[in-house]
Amino acid sequence: MPPAIYLSFFLALTHANLTFAQSNSSYPNKPIQVVAPSTAGGGFDLVARVLGVKLSEQMGQQFVVENKPGSGTLIGTQTIAKAAPDGYHILVGGLSNIALNMGLYKQPGYDPINDFVPLRLVVSHSYTLIGTKSLPVNNLKDLLAYAKANPGKLNIGSSGPGSGQFILATLVRSLGNVDILQVPYKGAQPVYMDLISGRVDLFFDNSTTTRSYLEAGQVKGLAVSSKSRAPDALSIPTLKETGVMDLEMETWFGWFVPAKTPLPIVEKLRMEIDKAMSVQDVRTRLQQGSGRILQMSTQETDAFIKSEVSKWTQLLRQAGIVPE
């Protein structure tokens, strides 16, 4: 190759490296989009806004939260999977859109492992199985025995197919081998109205939401889905502790960016999230009373996500859920 061509190649490469370095050192220099693949309220939205406010303060640029619901969590998740990998597009990922959707849809429109890079997982919430006050049982073991002795008599409320409520209701019926009617609702509030009035018997909902109803004595708690008992409801056993169901499920949340986002930007965002998570007010707001703050290394996060995708894809298949 002639010297002039060598020189041109060297100068072009040097210019590209300088441009790359300058873009990373000045990052961020414009507002950053944070997509919560759900309506306002709930876990996705909470994690988007709590971290978004803190990182806006820390980094001097606005983190703009956009709620993109639709097809469960598919629309918002697909949006970021297809976005430019430049650090200006962030997804709130969780159990639902990163793991459960892989067993619920034949073609979700994204690959959770290959299309995204996890920044940090920050919080996890359990679910609590609650029952109407008139239910003639007080624990999961007795509930399953009662359901087997009275097939078709009990019903359990649930929301959409991609929700934790739906998945847990399905797994209780499948793994417990019981005939319990699953009643679909468009949201949690109507379920509580029917649960308190006795028109529905059971509901598996986010532990944070169930807590106020339990404390008011409007419903009874039968089991929690986490590995350990909830710190603010120690009297309610875990699913495993009941001895009749070997199952753990927590709905976790974190921030993700598109694959191929430059590593310096990824590391900068991770550092800023770690800084935000060291603030007690941020932790308290994310916990909402019963949440569990997550602290994982990058390697632990990668391994955990791969494990969750594999675990739930298999469990949903075993439960007889056919991908749409």
Structural description of this entry:
With 324 residues, the chain is an alpha/beta fold. It has two domains: 30-125 and 250-318, Bordetella uptake gene, domain 1 (D-Maltodextrin-Binding Protein, domain 2); 126-242, Periplasmic binding protein-like II (D-Maltodextrin-Binding Protein, domain 2, 3-Layer(aba) Sandwich). Helices cover 44% and strands 19% of the residues. It has eleven helices and ten strands. The chain has helices at 3-25, 42-59, 74-81, 95-104, 140-149, 164-175, 188-197, 207-215, 263-277, 280-287, 298-318, and strands at 32-36, 63-67, 89-94, 116-132, 155-158, 181-184, 202-206, 219-224, 250-258, 292-293. Strands 1, 2, 3, 4, 5, 6, 7, 8, 9 and 10 form a ten-stranded mixed sheet that branches. Helix 6 links the parallel strand 5 and strand 6. Helix 2 (42-59) packs across helix 9 and helix 4 (95-104) runs parallel beside helix 11 (298-318). The model is unreliable at 11-23 (pLDDT under 50).
Give a nutshell description of this structure.
The chain has 324 residues and is α/β, with parallel strands linked by helices. It has helices spanning 3-25, 42-59, 74-81, 95-104, 140-149, 164-175, 188-197, 207-215, 263-277, 280-287, 298-318, and strands at 32-36, 63-67, 89-94, 116-132, 155-158, 181-184, 202-206, 219-224, 250-258, 292-293.
Question: How does the SSE layout of this entry go?
Answer:
Blueprint (H helix, E strand, L loop, with lengths): L2 H23 L6 E5 L5 H18 L3 E5 L6 H8 L7 E6 H10 L11 E17 L7 H10 L5 E4 L5 H12 L5 E4 L3 H10 L4 E5 H9 L3 E6 L25 E9 L4 H15 L2 H8 L4 E2 L4 H21 L6
Parallel strand pairs: 1-2, 1-3, 5-6, 5-7
Antiparallel strand pairs: 3-9, 4-7, 4-8, 4-9, 4-10
